[in-house]
Specification:
- The chain is of the alpha+beta class and 760 residues long.
- It has a six-stranded mixed sheet, sandwiched between helices. The protein has a four-stranded antiparallel sheet with strand order 1-2-3-4, covered by helices on one side.
- It folds into three domains: 113 residues, Pleckstrin-homology domain (PH domain)/Phosphotyrosine-binding domain (PTB) (PH-domain like), CATH 2.30.29.30; 206 residues, ABC transporter type 1, transmembrane domain (ABC transporter transmembrane region fold, Up-down Bundle); 227 residues, P-loop containing nucleotide triphosphate hydrolases (Rossmann fold), CATH 3.40.50.
- It holds the Pfam family ABC_tran.
- It comes from Pseudoduganella ginsengisoli.
- This is ATP-binding cassette domain-containing protein.
- Its main location: membrane.
Length: 760
């Protein structure tokens, strides 16, 4: 059998150090701990620490809040059950006669609990059959020391950590967007090369101008007018040529960079729209808006301005270096002395700037998140008089942003003057050594003048490049945040070879459907058959899994287990957009876009005629109130439809669903947020809507589902009852209790016996 030493080989992630002395006292001689799980909830679901251990001989446990250890030797009838619900995991140790132990834990421990359960089965079977379990050191994670299965190459814990390369390299991934413009880019960089070469001419002409004209004239010789005009023409011509080439390369590269930025924004937004609701559930609106807006704009500015300057600086430095060496190698070597120090300083500061700008981006996301929360919810803010609280939230976020920027500015404020000082020092060295060379008549005054001019440009460009480090790291950070979106793979993937349904009948079948949201099991083992044209009502307490089931049918999420079939075809085999075009959805809180009434009704069918829009509004009992608006169907509604009442918004939502004429209709608490009078109007509209369609309706008010052909009662993510209203009332079971509770206007849970029966 495996012999894992408690002190060294057992993963510290499984057995915390604080437990080791106590566990050591409980072990018999030669007994070793092979797996452990720290449970953190007691029987009342209060936080408390406990421990479950596996050795090669037995399972041991100390329940949370207790001091006594219990143990059970491995026997053939011993079973360890693992299940979870609503964020709480549950381990049960049972035999044929009774439950021996029960431990609860938060789902952060779920992976270790799964390993413990699997290890228990292997150890029990090994103990009963006396066959050893062989596990080599090759199947232990070298990082966290957690045990791996024989067919596992990667540790599921360690691989959750995403190792990203230095973000500067992320900028090279922008070539994907630059590739379609490679020929204009090549033309722009060719113009840049020629422009930089044109800038190299004037300093070179100063050497003969100084040695052949000015110095001889100072020594009494007459001015050579021909040479003066020749050199002046050369200086003017090179300046004019540099201007023309500079204008051309700036214009061409600016046009290209703007198109790259536009393509980047469009691609990111299109990819964002294809991601599942699961992705949006973990993101803040302000953060996503910041990435697509300000981050892409920052990249565009970098490509159009700073990258151009950087490339120009590199070319200027290379060309200047070559010219300096060709003029005087010794003086060139002296002039380049500060270069290694500047390069080392840039390397030293770069990483600090990169991490600093990444943190600034995250903190700025906090500021935009406050705005994204507060502005759409301004009515709630004012209703509860929380203006000062929200202002304080913004003040705190803004102060945090200021503190992070101040910290980074300390680094930058020291770096930039240091580089400037080293460049000035380099020029001073050139003057000192150059004057000494002139005094020894090794070089002329013209050569020294040209050298100083070129060196000034060299160090000026070097100083400019050092400043671009800041901009580069900002852009790299922005690119990383955008590629975080582009690299995310939707959890609702498109099929490689989608099946096409010629005509959708509307038969829906759920086969052993289960769904987990992260570590939390929401639905389990659901089997429902819905015939074409049938109306099925989903009922149950809040949190029973009704809305999640509707999200699965709409394929906003994909099932974790089982399958959902439409007319006998797994919906995962259908193209997502083609499938959803067959579904009309009416939500509890209808969302209207900023625009006209007509545009909102025609949202799912933009090519609809005005007659079709009006017909849908009439069927939804919305035509009358629309005509009372100032511009009728052309009346503008505010953001999210704030200019309309809840009932009016809901009827427009119903008209929107009617217009696309879907074979499948889903009503998610469509009348939950309105008064009784408005509910009657909406119910009339819904009666028109459900006719001839497969309808799945969720309603908190059970009275609104009495027209349903069948009711499905959910509890804790499972189907507990199914049948018509009268049939379920006659059973006096779960549905009967729900109905009676509503009649008494109280909230009650299913009785413990019903829960336990269906949990088992």
């Amino acid at each position: 059998m495996i012999t894992t030493q408690l002190s060294s080989e057992l993963s510290h992630t499984e057995l915390p150090e604080v437990w080791r002395p106590e566990v050591q006292l409980q072990l018999a001689s030669g007994e070793n701990v092979l797996s452990a799980l720290e449970v953190d909830l007691d029987a009342r679901l209060h936080f408390a620490k406990g421990l479950v251990l596996l050795t090669e001989r037995r399972i041991m446990a100390r329940a949370p809040g207790e001091t006594v250890w219990q143990s059970w030797p491995y026997t053939p009838d011993l079973t360890l059950k693992l299940h979870d619900h609503a964020g709480v995991g549950h381990l049960e140790l049972v035999n044929h006669q009774q439950r021996l132990g029960s431990w609860r834990f938060t789902l952060g421990q779920n992976l270790l609990a799964i390993r413990l359960s699997e290890k228990f089965t292997a150890l029990r079977d090994s103990f009963v059959t006396q066959q050893p379990i062989v596990q080599s050191e090759d199947h232990i994670c070298p990082t966290c020391k957690a045990p791996l299965e024989p067919d596992q190459d990667e540790c599921p814990i360690c691989t959750k950590v995403v190792h990203t390369p230095p973000s500067t390299w992320t900028l090279f991934r922008l070539w994907r967007f630059a590739k379609p413009y490679r020929w204009p880019l090549l033309a722009g960089f060719s113009l840049m090369l020629l422009s930089t070469g044109a800038h190299m001419i004037p300093p070179y002409l100063t050497m003969p101008l100084m040695d052949n004209v000015l110095i001889p004239y100072q020594n009494g010789a007459p001015v050579n007018t021909h040479l003066v005009w020749l050199y002046m023409s050369g200086l003017f011509g090179s300046a004019l040529l540099a201007w023309v080439l500079g204008w051309g390369k700036t214009y061409v590269l600016a046009l290209v960079s703007e198109r790259i930025g536009a393509d980047l924004r469009t691609t990111t937004y299109e990819h964002l729209l294809k991601l599942s609701l699961e992705y949006f559930g973990g993101k803040r609106t302000g953060d996503l808006m910041s990435r697509i807006g300000s981050e892409s704009d920052r990249i565009c500015v970098f490509l159009s301005l700073h990258l151009l300057d950087f490339a120009s600086d590199v070319l200027m430095i290379v060309m200047t270096g070559v010219i300096l060496v060709s003029i005087d190698p010794m003086l060139a070597a002296i002039s380049l002395l500060p270069l290694p120090f500047i390069a080392w300083l840039i390397h030293l500061v770069r990483d600090k700037l990169r991490t600093g700008f990444e943190k600034i981006d995250r903190v700025w996301g906090e500021v935009t998140n406050v705005l994204a929360d507060t502005i759409p919810g301004i009515r709630v803010v004012k209703a509860f008089a929380q203006e000062s609280r929200e202002a304080n939230r913004f003040r705190v976020a803004n102060k945090h942003n200021l503190a992070v920027n101040d910290k980074l500015n300390k680094v930058w404020s020291l770096f930039s003057p240091t580089v400037s000082f080293l460049t000035e020092l380099g020029l001073l060295v050139i003057w000192v050594f150059g004057i000494w060379q002139v005094s020894k008549q090794h070089i002329t005054v013209g050569v020294l003048t040209a050298f100083v001019t070129y060196s000034s440009r060299f160090y000026g460009r070097l100083d400019s490049m050092s400043r671009i480090v800041s901009v580069t790291q900002k852009s790299a950070s922005a690119a990383k945040r955008i590629f975080d979106i582009l690299d995310h793979v939707s959890s609702v993937p498109e099929p490689a070879n989608p099946v096409k349904l010629k005509k959708v009948e509307g038969n829906i079948a759920l086969r052993e459907v289960g769904f987990r949201y992260g570590n939390r099991a929401v639905n389990r083992g659901i089997n429902i058959n819905i015939k074409a044209g049938e109306m099925v009502g989903l009922v149950g307490h809040s949190g029973s899994g009704k809305s999640t089931l509707v999200n699965l049918i709409c394929r906003f999420y994909d099932v974790s287990e089982g399958a959902i079939l439409l007319d006998g075809v797994d919906i995962r085999a259908l193209a997502v957009s083609d499938y959803r075009r067959n579904i009309g959805l009416v939500l509890q809180e209808p969302f209207l876009f900023f625009g006209t009434i007509a545009e909102n009704i025609a949202y799912g069918r933009p090519d609809a005629t005005r007659e079709q829009i009006i017909a849908a509004a009439r069927a939804a009992h919305a035509h009358e109130f629309i005509l009372r608006l100032p511009q009728g169907y052309d009346s503008m509604v505010g953001e999210r439809g704030q200019g309309l009442s809840g009932g009016e918004r809901q009827r427009i939502s119903i008209a929107r669903a009617l217009l696309i004429d879907p074979p499948i209709l889903i009503l998610d608490e469509a009348t939950a947020s309105v008064d009784s009078e408005t509910e009657k109007e909406i119910q009339k509209a819904l009666d028109n809507l459900v006719t001839g369609r497969t309808t799945i309706a969720i309603a908190h008010r059970l009275s609104t589902l009495q027209k349903a052909d069948r009711l499905v009662v959910l509890d804790r993510g499972k189907v507990v009852e199914e049948g018509g209203h009268d049939e379920l009332m006659a059973k006096e079971g779960a549905y009967y209790r729900l109905y009676q509770a509503q009649a008494r206007n109280v909230d009650t849970d299913l009785d413990d016996a019903t829960r336990k029966r269906h949990d088992d």
